[in-house]
Amino acid sequence: MLSGGRDSTCLLDVAATLAGHGALTALHVNHGLRPEAHEEEEHCAELCERLGVALVVERLGPAPATGNLQAWAREARYAAASFLPGAIATGHTATDQTETILQRLAASPGRRALLGMSEREGRVVRPLLEVTRGQTAAYCEARGLPWREDPANDDPIYTRARARNELVPALRRLHPAAEANVVTTSRLLREEAEVLDALVEEVLGGREEIELARLRSLPRALARLVVRRLAERALGSRVPRAAGRAEDVLELGSDAALDLGDGARARTRQGVLRFERSPERAERRTPREG
């Protein structure tokens, strides 16, 4: 995925060198959001021609008038990449990982905030997660590869830009290896999360429910993970507030119900706990007849 910035330019050159120029295709998505978009597209075309790499360009229509513009652009990029065969390589770096973790930690408590991005998610691979943005710039300079800067990266209206320009430099001032340490911590936590996930599955044994008495007998940390797993399994999506409501779930009677937020409801019948979609969310998702 080629934006034309330093990170994706570095990734493209490394991938072409290692895999061979004919073994990969670059994808550039022109969101049409800025006057410079056409120039950036031309820059990517010139770069790919120089490196002998095939280029696919996806031009998007008008951006939505409302909603999160960056989220729309990100989803559009991955949607475009999904039509191409093979792995989808992105230029996310250790600096991006640090920004992501700081953003998530500021917005939502819990272990998940510290996990950051994984090196592989389905077809998506992130080969540069151990490399800082400064290192990708140094690589491009050494190889004589020009890149384009996206002015949105420094626009304080975006949370990501504030994390990039305020929080990450502050971490570097505290310790020069801050980004590397954050990335290492994230990787270790991901490995430990696999152990915890296996433990939760061992408790549940593949079931969609658990006896309240057994849930209450578990260590509190494990009970929280079980509550979250059951809620998310029932809804088929993340339920961020489930773990924070675990104590309330543990206090339920043998026949009771509790809305957790995020569209999830805990329900007990004869002392057995299950989760379901809350009636309000279910009503919104089900078309009315007539």
Q: What's the gist of this structure?
A:
The protein is α/β, with parallel strands linked by helices and 290 residues long. Helix content is 50%, strand content 13%.
What do these coordinates show?
50% of the residues lie in helices and 13% in strands. By secondary structure, it is α/β, with parallel strands linked by helices. The chain has 2 domains: 176 residues, Rossmann fold, CATH 3.40.50; 78 residues, Uridine Diphospho-n-acetylenolpyruvylglucosamine Reductase, domain 3. The strands form 3 sheets. Strands 6-9-8-7 form a 4-stranded antiparallel sheet. Strands 3-5-4 form a 3-stranded mixed sheet, with no helix packed on it. Strands 1-2 form a two-stranded parallel ribbon. It is elongated, with a radius of gyration of 23 Å.
